[in-house]
Write a structure and sequence with these properties.
alpha+beta; 4 strands; 94 residues; Ribosomal Protein L24e, Chain: T; two-stranded antiparallel ribbon
């Protein structure tokens, strides 16, 4: 399972752990990911996604999962989220 947010694309960053004596060793900064169930109004069902806590705040701010996906860029979204976006567009059009 990759450590990448399915909605924002946020992933692992690499940096240095710096000791008191200024010795630098490589370390990884992991995103804060949560397994969450979000409600899709257009599809009328629940969707399980692995998203960062920052993305959860963004989903709330934009007014739900459907609004977030409609506004998000396709390059940021995971293949699962991109498929959801297409289904939501089709449901909204009909």
């Amino acid at each position: 399972m990759s450590r990448r947010c399915e909605l924002t694309g946020k992933g692992v960053l690499v940096g240095h752990k710096v000791s008191h004596s200024n010795i630098k060793t490589k370390r990884r900064f992991l995103p804060n990911l949560c397994n969450v169930t979000l409600q899709s109004d257009a599809l009328k069902r629940n969707v399980r996604l692995r998203v960062s806590t920052n993305a959860l705040k963004s989903v709330d701010h934009r007014g739900g999962l459907d609004a977030f996906l409609m506004k998000a860029r396709d390059t940021e979204l995971s293949p699962r989220a991109l498929e959801l976006k297409k289904k939501i567009k089709a449901a909204a059009a009909s």
